Amino acid sequence: MSESEMVTLTIDGRSVQAVKATTVLEAARSAGIEIPHYCYHPGLSIVGSCRMCLVEIEKIPKLQPSCATPVAEGMVVRTRTPEAVRNRQSVLEFLLLNHPLDCPVCDQAGECELQNYYMDFGCYDPRFNENKKKRKKALPIGPHVILDQERCILCTRCVRFTQEISRTGELGVHDRGHLSEIDIFPGKELDNPYSGNVVDICPVGALTDRDFRFQCRVWFLGSAPSVCPGCSRGCNIEIHYNERFDPRYHDRRIHRLKPRFNRDVNGHWMCDEGRYAYHAIDAAERLRAPSLGREGAHMPAEWQEAMRRTAEALKHTLETHGPTAVAVLASPQMTNEELFQLRGLFREGLHAEHFEYRVPVRESVYSDDFLIRADKNPNGRGAELFGFAGAGSDDLLRRCSEGRIRFLYLCHHDLTRAYDAGMVRDALAQVRFTAYHGPFDHPTAFLADVRLPAAMYAEEAGTFTNFQGRVQRISAAVPPPGKAVPGIEIIAMLAEALGTPLGKGSPAQVFREIAAKFPPFEGMDYETLGDSGQLLKSG
Ligand code: FES
To answer: Could you tell me the distance, in angstroms and rounded to a whole number, from the CA of residue 405 to the centre of ligand 1?
Structure first.
């Protein structure tokens, strides 16, 4: 940024540098000075309606809205003078006149800006002696969102979201003056693909999430930064999980996903499809222990036994039929670290020849020109970089049917979603040993000789490479169910059972190896990736 584009101003006695068009509120924020606000949101247009952000600016007689006032050279701003604080208290007193004060049953309690600012600036003796105005409560306005008009402070963030971001315009301010209220337009439903974001941006408890409602108090939630695996965009998310033991699952479990700001990937937003997909993590179909046997005759086994049998079958195939009879069907749901280890073991260690990762998609998939991508996998780009062929698995299945593949290492995919179930069954019947490595029990896992339960994205550390070539970290928020383990541990155990150990490297160590061997990842490590990732060198 050139010097001519910057201005220097003073905020609360501190000298602050800011870009010319920046507002006082944003300049203060960048200097770590928080000015209370309701209607301002960095991802939306500015309306300056709530008056909570008023500050004193030297040489201007009245308090000014810091969210709508651009910075100027030499400006002197004071955010906590008695007059500014008195204004905040008055605004709060007005906002709380008709507020139901139902914090004990409100999901926003603990992260509500009415509560927080009241404790910081309110704390007054209320002068309102009338009956509070009654409005609609707990009104389902769409598949994911509940509206409580009594709690609303009319900041209009949700209305602007539907006008400016989702561009669907379902919400509006109805009536005028003291009768004003947020509501859905007649005959409409808040059912756009991004509807859950209005809950994130509501600063109070007026819009709550039907999925999260009454599930967990927010002060019991821990948070882990991660990446949504729902499509190749790789929206940055926070995984919120209960930090206490949850007796329903005998462990810590996930309660919600929230978007995490990344200017280059998803801005402040995420789609509903990704937001609510976390339920799959606790699905009844999760594999919880290794098992041996085929077509329903599966018997639980210890990891050691499952690995010994898999390694025996693999060695036998290599000795009797050679590496052309070994095939790997990896998955673009796997992390870079898993794919790298899989490649290291099967291609470099055992010289196997058939490496695929993509299975054709039979269902129609939704995509748009905002965030949602048609490729519903987080790491197709990574799979291609590690040399897995993406042409599809038709040829692989044909080879299986012809009896040319004797050992198949199949990761994650349910082939019956892409091919006729009878055809898959017949093809796998010709394979002498099929190992299934993945998180779910499904018709394809049912046909395998060994099933190796793998962790999902929220249960392991690693990285995904999104469609832009941005390498981003995921982190383990909760432990995997039962005896399931992260994919790189499964591959390391198999390598050990084969007598060609890969070493029990942590994901960070494996990633350092990737950076050393693959030029597009050169110079990267978990530290440099940070929270927002890095583009591949060739990306
Ligand atoms: Fe400035 Fe609302 S945040 S007026």
So the answer is: 66
Tokens 């203060």 correspond to: 28
| Residue type, position 160, single letter | R
How many angstroms separate the alpha carbon of residue 49 from the centre of ligand 1?
6
According to DSSP, residue 286 is labeled: B
Range of the domain at 255: 221-282
Q: How far is CA 311 from CA 289, 306, 345, 407, 445, in A?
A: 18, 9, 12, 10, 18
327 lines ligand 1 (CB under 6 A): no
- 76-117 tens-digit pLDDT: 999 999 999 999 999 999 999 999 999 999 999 999 999 999
- Domain membership of residue 214 (yes or no) is no
The per-residue b/e assignment along 158-177, b for 16 or more CB within 10 angstroms, e otherwise, is bbbbbbebbebebbbeeeee
CATH number at residue 458: 3.40.50.740
67 CB under 6 A from ligand 1?
yes
Q: Please check whether residues 355 and 501 belong to one and the same domain.
A: yes
pLDDT category at 250 given cuts 50, 70, 90 is: low
Three-state DSSP class for residue 248: coil
Examine the fold and report which residue of 282, 299, 322 is the final residue of a domain before the chain moves on: 282
Q: CATH no. for residue 46? A: 3.10.20.740
Domain identity same for 200 and 342: no
Question: Are 491 and 361 in the same domain?
Answer: yes
Beta strands 354-356 and 236-242: pairing type?
unpaired
> From start to end of 487-536, where are the E strands?
534-535
Name which of 82, 213, 227 is nearest 137 in CA terms: 213
Model confidence pLDDT, tens digit, residues 304-359: 999 999 999 999 999 999 999 999 999 999 999 999 999 999 999 999 888 888 88
Do 536 and 469 meet the contact criterion of CB atoms below 8 Å apart? yes
Closest of 420, 418, 416 to residue 448, by C-alpha? 416
Using a 6 Å cutoff on CB, does residue 39 contact ligand 1? yes
- Pocket flag, ligand 1, residue 50 (CB < 6 Å): yes
Same domain, 42 and 108: no
DSSP state of 185: P
Pick from 521, 510, 505: nearest CA to 472: 521
Single-letter amino acid code for the residue at 194: Y
Which ligand 1 atom minimizes the distance to the CA of 66?
1
Strand-pairing partners, residue 227, are: 236
**What angle do helix axes 487-498 and 336-343 make, rounded to 10 degrees?**
10
Query: Is any atom of ligand 1 closer than 6 Å to the C-beta of 153?
Result: no
Q: In sequence order, what DSSP letters do the residues of 121-132 get, joined into one string?
A: H--------SPP
Give the pairing type, strands 236-242 and 254-259: antiparallel
* Claim to verify: residue 121 and residue 187 sit in the same structural domain: yes
Identify the CA nearest to 155 among candidates 201, 214, 116. Answer: 201
Amino acid letter, residue 493: M
